[in-house]
Amino acid sequence: MQLIDGKKTSQAVKLEIAQEVKQMISSGMKQPHLAAVLVGNDGGSETYVAAKIKSCEEVGFASSLIRFGNDVTEAELLAAVKNLNEDADVDGFIVQLPLPKHISEEKVTEAIDPKKDVDGFHPQNLGRMITGADAFVSATPQGIMELLKRYNIDTKGKHAVIIGRSNIVGRPMSILLSLKGNPGDATVTVCHSRTANLKEICLQADIIVAALGIPEFLKADMVKEGAVVIDVGTTRVPSTETKSGWRLKGDVDFPNVSPKCSFITPVPGGVGPMTIVSLLLNTLKAARHK
Amino acid sequence: MQLIDGKKTSQAVKLEIAQEVKQMISSGMKQPHLAAVLVGNDGGSETYVAAKIKSCEEVGFASSLIRFGNDVTEAELLAAVKNLNEDADVDGFIVQLPLPKHISEEKVTEAIDPKKDVDGFHPQNLGRMITGADAFVSATPQGIMELLKRYNIDTKGKHAVIIGRSNIVGRPMSILLSLKGNPGDATVTVCHSRTANLKEICLQADIIVAALGIPEFLKADMVKEGAVVIDVGTTRVPSTETKSGWRLKGDVDFPNVSPKCSFITPVPGGVGPMTIVSLLLNTLKAARHK
Predict the structure, then answer these.
(1) Of A100, A237, B105, B124, which residue is least crowded by CB atoms under 10 Å?
(2) What are φ and ψ of residue B114, in 5° steps?
(3) How much is the pTM?
């Protein structure tokens, strides 16, 4: 069993990005700039956004954070999006989800200029990903593809089973893995809460992507010997062993599943760190396109 | 075995559309208007466009046809698209594919206003289909979904195997069938030219959608007893029995596969007639939205 070390890989990618930023600046280009919009003070969102900004500093990007209270109106948020669309210094930006219930996430997402949509959530980017055209691919799927590539994991003709059909992980993963290319060219099965015979299907999988958000859902008796297992789960569970009082659990029963795997991502330290790196890569791409 | 009669169903849907058009006009709305752009004189394209225009007449739509020679420039074609985008009388329009090699189909498709893109090929419509937002779904997949609905074929929790990953049939079918809803909520496997064990996978399928374009590819020994088989293939093969010198062949070995099926679509008279009906439904929807 080989551990897929997302932390180490993400650091390697960050070094590459930092190098490229230096070259861009020395060739007279401006510093890439990522902006984030944060509404309210959800603990998870605060942590994610802080980590994104810290990563910007690490690679030499400019970053800015625009904060709103939970009582921001949809119109105010849309106006902020419009400003960012028009701000020539901002190469890409994200609006951290979830948003308060009185604001339409669909409307806000679609208001973002697809060329600055480094989260890859705009329908235009999703659609272009399908057709294989140039697009911003959302961070988590792109991070997984990068891990598969850097660990030379062969996906061509392999059977990949994706558990979960979310717009931001399961669905794009199922598309990316079945597109022509490398990684890609896999036979892909999309499973979800309505799937009747999940265990039977998982047992056929050469590659399993667990992205349903139920801690330790994937058990050893659902995984065939030699499978590649990618764990996208990041559920906070109470813990007496940490200062914060919680720790992250993945969707995979790691201690029992990992001995059967050829490759497996741990939680934390697997897919998570790659997610932020993908956002940086998208921002770099947006800056280069300009 | 029950035959899924696309011809009969399409006629029923056309009657429904014609009724609605009458009501729209009597309530003071304008006649829905579908325009088609045809480049060159490819036999298949000529036939398809002629059939689309004939169908418009049948349901009471206005239609118009804009023709260009094979030597049209990309700029000329893009100008025609812009005109149609801006023409308030045109509710929806299509640019018949394929286009000559010197013209970028991607550029032309993306130039179409997504609100008039009744073919559903614009990335924005593909992307919105993924997120489950309101979108124009491309004609063939939508026609298949309509057949499944009208024949009360249960897809929830069923295993659907899609053979083919094209942007206009296989890919959207795999997404639509695995989205929440009815029809939908199926466990979906996408197979293609790189799939290693196609027969084994097909034998697990409750529903097979054959959309690869190889005549009589799907054989009886690849289909389990009681399966639903949807044949999207429409390859012209030479024939001495027809005046035209050719006839349409599907991707399914119909004589041998059909006895095993609970439901099956014939070729011709299955999915084909539903394709045009979907285009009419999309045009009606575009007209209603205005």
Answers:
(1) A237
(2) -55, -30
(3) 0.95
Residues in chain A: 290
Kind and range of the H or E element at B21?
Answer: helix B6-26
DSSP three-state, residue B159? strand
Which residues of chain B does A134 touch, with a Cβ-Cβ cutoff of 8 Å? none
pLDDT in tens, B25-40: 999 999 999 999 999 9
Q: Which of A5, A91, A117, A119 is catalytic?
A: A119
Assign B289 a pLDDT band (cuts: 50, 70, 90): confident
Instruction: Tell me the torsion sign for CA atoms B278, B281, B287, B289.
Output: negative
Instruction: Choose the mutation target among A130, A156, A200 for the interface with B, i.e. most B CBs under 10 Å.
Output: A130
Q: What are the pLDDT digits (tens) for B238-284? A: 999 999 899 999 999 999 999 999 999 999 999 999 999 999 999 99
Q: Which CATH class is domain B29-113?
A: alpha beta
CA distances for B199 relative to A201, B205, B220, angstroms: 15, 10, 10
Among B97, B136, B192, B201, the strongest candidate for a mutation testing the A interface, having the largest count of A CBs within 10 A, is B192
3-state secondary structure of B180: coil
Biggest distance spanned by C-alpha atoms of chain A = 58
What is A139-273's CATH number? 3.40.50.720
**Helix, strand or coil for residue B19?**
helix
Domain A30-113, second-level architecture:
3-Layer(aba) Sandwich (3.40)
Contact residues, chain B, for A183 at CB < 8 Å: none
- The enclosing H or E element of B34 equals strand B33-39
A52 is catalytic: yes
Residues of B with CB under 8 A from a CB of A: 106, 122-128, 130-133, 135, 156-159, 165, 167, 171, 174-175, 178-179, 185-192, 194-197, 201
Long-range contacts of A95-98 (CB under 8 A, 24+ apart): A95/A36, A95/A37, A95/A39, A95/A119, A96/A36, A96/A37, A96/A38, A96/A39, A96/A45, A96/A48, A96/A49, A97/A45, A97/A121, A98/A42, A98/A45
Catalytic residues of B: 52, 96, 119
% of chain B residues with pLDDT over 90: 95
ipTM: 0.94
Q: Tell me whether residue A159 is exposed, middle or buried, using C-beta atoms within 10 angstroms of its C-beta: 0 to 12, 13 to 18, 19 or more.
A: buried
Closest chain A residue to the Cα of B196, Cα to Cα: A157
Contacts of B126 in chain A (CB under 8 A): 123, 126-127, 130-131
Tally A–B CB contacts below 8 A: 111
Direct distance between the N- and C-terminal alpha carbons of chain B, in angstroms, rounded to an integer: 43
How do the domains of chain A map onto residue ranges?
30-113, 139-273
Domain B139-271: top CATH class: alpha beta
- How many H-runs (helices) and E-runs (strands) does chain B carry? 10, 11
- Give the whole-angstrom CA distance, residue B46 versus residue B36: 11
Structure confidence by residue, pLDDT tens digits, B76-102: 999 999 999 999 999 999 999 999 999
Note whether A30-113 and A139-273 share their fold: yes
Query: If you ran DSSP here, which 8-state letter would residue B102 be given?
Result: T
